[in-house]
Amino acid sequence: MSTTSTPGLRGQGGWRLVFRVAGVLLLVVALVFLGLGLQSFFAASGDEEGGFPSRFWMASVGIAILGPAAWCLQAGFVGAAARYVAGETTPVVKDSASYLTDGEGILGLGRTLDDAAPTDPTSTATGPYCSRCGTRNDADASFCDSCGAALAH
User: Fold this and answer.
1) Which of 14, 114, 145, 152 has fewest C-beta within 10 Å?
2) Backbone CA torsion sign across 81, 83, 87, 93
3) For the whole model, what pTM was predicted?
């Protein structure tokens, strides 16, 4: 049983859904108000008698509602956007770390050197690198020999 808590708020998925639904509803209301206000404006400007646009105030209300709609949508989709950005940038960071360190990597990230000739001649480790300290471990190791961190297999 894990003693670490899940990051984020309780019911975070529910709140995300509330923000998404509220954002879409507010956006629809804002667009309806904008459409009615602008329709009134253009109908009055094409009138030969030069009538006053009676519902133009609706366009101002629609613009005012766009702000909260955008905020709700941003709050509802920020996690998905962050995961997308991380997925796009992580490979680039890994390749950059490999290039800038001549294959040695930084704390194991970006390590591309073949360890056929290990820096420690007494080491026979052929398993994964530790993501925390960069140490090469045995193939069947579950924890790092150097720092004790859990190894990904």
Assistant:
1) 114
2) positive
3) 0.54
